[in-house]
């Protein structure tokens, strides 16, 4: 994957995202749509995975059939909203290894502080896909990616639903080697760090909290 930012251009993605943005969309619909859209985004972010062949036997004859090369992927959910994207992707890639990074923002320093970190072994040999629906200020995403690098990950991609120009820029400066795949690039951040037009708080909308 060579582009730093890929905005997935597909009518199904665009349509589903529009319904998710609408403020009156129910929690159940939001969750279902997030699941569906995550399959389409996962399809896109894995499009260039290296493939090799292996010898198999069909009921008809032997053949050299394509199979994904290398160690199993690592999917890393950035808590808590990352879990909404993770569930869908796991339907498509059920053998992936899964990790979690939990960060909260210190109210005084405004810096991200880690409260949970558990990732698969041998990250250095895996394609590592970090997932978080909203790339807003980029502070927690940048910190989470740094933690993954500190744990050995060398080939990292970042998957989100919505990105802000500010967040993309921040990631590009901090981690130019980490390609971003998103369903849409929105206009800007507001003074509270929310993406505009956005969809509100992704975690609240998928979990029905306020
Ligand atoms: N996190 C969200 O859930 N929504 C935003 O708009 C920004 C960050």
Briefly note the structural class of the backbone.
alpha/beta
Distance from first to last alpha carbon: 37 Å
Q: What is the total tally of β strands?
A: 14
Strand order of the largest sheet: 1-11-9-7-4-5-6
Give the C-alpha Rg: 18 Å
**What is the overall number of helices?**
6
Q: Name the ligand types.
A: uracil
* Helical content (DSSP H or I, runs of 4+): 25-40%
Percent strand equals 25-35%
Protein name: Uracil phosphoribosyltransferase
Binding site for 5-phospho-alpha-D-ribose 1-diphosphate: 80, 105, 132-140, 201
Enzyme class: transferase
Keywords: Allosteric enzyme, Glycosyltransferase, GTP-binding, Magnesium, Nucleotide-binding, Transferase
Structural features:
single chain; 210 residues; alpha/beta; Rossmann fold; seven-stranded mixed beta sheet; binds uracil; magnesium ion binding; UPRTase/APRTase; GTP binding; glycosyltransferase
What does this structure look like?
The longest helix has 19 residues, at 27-45. The strands form 4 sheets. A 7-stranded mixed β-sheet has the order 1-11-9-7-4-5-6, with helices on both faces. The chain has a single domain (5-207), classed as Rossmann fold. A hairpin with a 6-residue loop joins strand 5 (97-105) and strand 6. The chain has helices at residues 11-21, 27-45, 82-92, 139-150, 165-174, 202-207, and strands at 5-7, 51-57, 62-68, 74-78, 97-105, 112-118, 127-131, 134-135, 155-159, 162-163, 180-182, 184-185, 188-189, 195-196. It starts with a strand and ends with a helix. By secondary structure, the chain is an alpha/beta fold. It is globular and about 60 Å long. The mean pLDDT is 95. Bound molecules: uracil. Uracil binds next to helix 6. It catalyses: UMP + diphosphate = 5-phospho-alpha-D-ribose 1-diphosphate + uracil. Residues 7-209 form the Phosphoribosyltransferase domain. Its cofactor is Mg(2+). InterPro entries: PRTase-like, PRTase_dom, Upp_B, UPRT, UPRTase/APRTase. One of its GO terms (cellular component) is cytoplasm.
